[in-house]
Design brief:
Elements: H1 6-16, H2 20-28, H3 31-44, E1 52-56, H4 62-67, E2 72-77, H5 80-92, E3 99-103, E4 116-122, H6 131-141, E5 142-153, H7 159-181, H8 186-196, H9 200-210, E6 214-220, E7 225-231
Parallel strand pairs: 1-2, 1-4, 2-3, 4-5
Antiparallel strand pairs: 5-7, 6-7
The chain binds S-adenosylmethionine.
């Protein structure tokens, strides 16, 4: 089991914050931005005007920035150096009136119940010490028509593609990550944490057991990532 105590995770992301965006683009050939766009489009089809979205584990704010095209967004994270980059980017893009940033722990959210129309979390749930505690908090802060969008890495099912992908993900990616960031740990932690993460089916069960009424999974790029969209009432 990986050590996911808060101070370890905070320290790990603080150590790569300066290279985080650059490595995301390099290691995914910018496909990660297409996944964030897909997430925005799926929510855009469902949310009304004047909606407010909480983007959890917002990091350097890439998803928050994408979502600010359709709603007011609060980006929340507990790693200060990551948030600082998010604030700088939103100022550079003149989005200060669309995005607020807040420092907070996803396991104990500093927000009132039923405050948000949607909660999003991209590549963040995997890092929580207790997935279910985090999901319960997300459920709590959503209003009773709210949506939860979890964008997370997954492991492709097609055998050949899966083998090729796992070779890249476990052998090549950690080396490039270590070389560029100057840190060995975080980019070995990445594939290890993906392997530990629940399957699409197990995550769906967890979401339903917390109280979500419907869960739809959208595999992306052949299953390298999955968007899990859950709603507090039937989507219809
Ligand atoms: C892999 S980054 C993802 C950042 C961003 N969502 C993206 O799409 O690039 C994971 C982020 O989750 C944050 N994080 C992990 N555990 C957290 C927790 N318990 N509470 C708040 N933020 C957390 C980390 O600080 C880090 O910024």
């Amino acid at each position: 089991m990986l050590d996911k105590r808060s101070h370890q995770i905070q320290r790990m992301f603080a150590s790569v914050a300066h290279r985080y965006d650059f490595l995301n683009r390099l290691l995914s050939l910018s496909i990660d931005q297409l996944w964030r766009r897909f997430t925005r489009r799926k929510l855009d089809q469902r949310l009304g005007s004047g909606s407010v979205i909480l983007d959890l584990c917002t990091g350097t704010g890439d998803l928050a920035i994408e979502l600010s095209r359709i709603a007011a967004v609060i980006g929340c994270d507990f790693c200060h150096p990551m948030l600082v980059r998010g604030v700088e980017k939103s100022l550079r893009k003149d989005l200060a009136n669309r995005i607020e940033f807040a420092e907070g722990d996803a396991l104990q959210l500093p927000f009132a119940s039923a405050r948000f129309d949607a909660v999003t979390i991209a590549f963040g749930l995997r890092n929580l010490e207790h997935y279910e505690t985090g999901i319960r908090e997300m459920y709590r802060v959503l209003n009773d028509t709210g949506y939860l969008a979890i964008l997370e890495f997954s492991i492709p099912k097609w055998p050949v593609y899966r083998q090729l992908y796992l070779f890249y993900f476990t052998k090549i990616l950690p080396r490039i990550g270590a070389l560029v960031s100057g840190k060995d740990g975080p980019y070995s932690y990445l594939p290890a944490s993906v392997k530990e993460f629940p399957s699409v089916e197990a995550l769906k069960e967890m979401l339903l057991s917390v109280g979500f009424k419907e869960v739809v999974a959208y595999p992306l790029t052949g299953g390298i990532a999955t968007l899990h969209l859950a709603s507090k009432r039937r989507m219809g």
